[in-house]
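Example A, followed by Example B.
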Amino acid sequence: MLLTIWRHGEAGRAATDRRRELTDKGFDDVGFGCHQFHAALAARGLPPPDQVLFSPWVRTAQTARVIASAFTHAAIQELAALRPGATAQAVEAALVGMEASAPAPVHVVLVSHQPLVSQLVDHFLGAGNQVPGLPPGGFATLALEVLAPACGTLHFWAVAPEYEVGT
């Protein structure tokens, strides 16, 4: 399975953290990030995402919709395991359940929050510091032979605003 872990775009203020919406810059960054993401996938012969999962908070739903609109064949779905305060183990368990379904997704994008996004990268790669902490709009794409800790390899990562791909 390919797994892209994407932090939501820049968000503004709101009455509650849960209701924070993307700023114009957040929308623009994620939109440009999708363009760069598409190019990075194509350059490596990797498939586009077929599933986009997001936390139940407004800014992640907005980010996921931008990503899904750039990859129109991708299904989009809320996943409670991606909410703030969740654990990498809970996300892993949700992904294992999805992998057992038919047909299993080939490339999943997870849209969530810090510190969970960085914890997920470290969880699946098995070592810290291979990818810098993901700022708003940043993402990392991993290949997972098995959905388990330390079983992933890094394909690339990128952060806003330039989204220059690093490996």
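Example B, a separate protein, is given below in the same form.
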Amino acid sequence: MPKWEYLVVYVQAPSINAAAADMGAEQHLRADKYTEQLNQYANAGWELMQFEWDGEKGVRAVFKRPRE
């Protein structure tokens, strides 16, 4: 049975549109800007398990990978 190690990180929100927030629209535009940072973890062997908006903190991402 494999053993796992876990990693929880906050990725800062790269772009927040204040005008959209005033209209009640989704503030987190351009979520694709997170891709590069997430791919850095993937290249290190981490598998994304959870991706969740966390207010002004940005995104909380939970990863796992097999323990060696």
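On Example B: Residues 29 and 68 are 38 Å apart (CA to CA).
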